[in-house]
Amino acid sequence: MKRHGLFLAVLFGCVCCMASHAASAQQEYVIGEGDLLRIMVYDHQDLTTEARVSGDGKITFPLIGEVAVSNQTVAAAERTIARLLEDGFIVRPQVSILITEFKSKKVTVLGEVAKPGVVILRGAYTLMEAISDAGGVTQNAGDTIYIQRKIFRGGGDRKVSPEIKNALAGIVEKEEVTVLVDTKKLFEEGDASVNTPVQDGDSIYVPKAAFVYVNGEVRTPGAYKITKGLTVLKSITLAGGFTPKASERRTKIIRNTDKGEVTIKAKMDDLVMPEDVVFVPESWF
Question: Looking at the structure, do residues 170 and 229 belong to the same domain, yes or no?
Answer without folding.
Answer: no
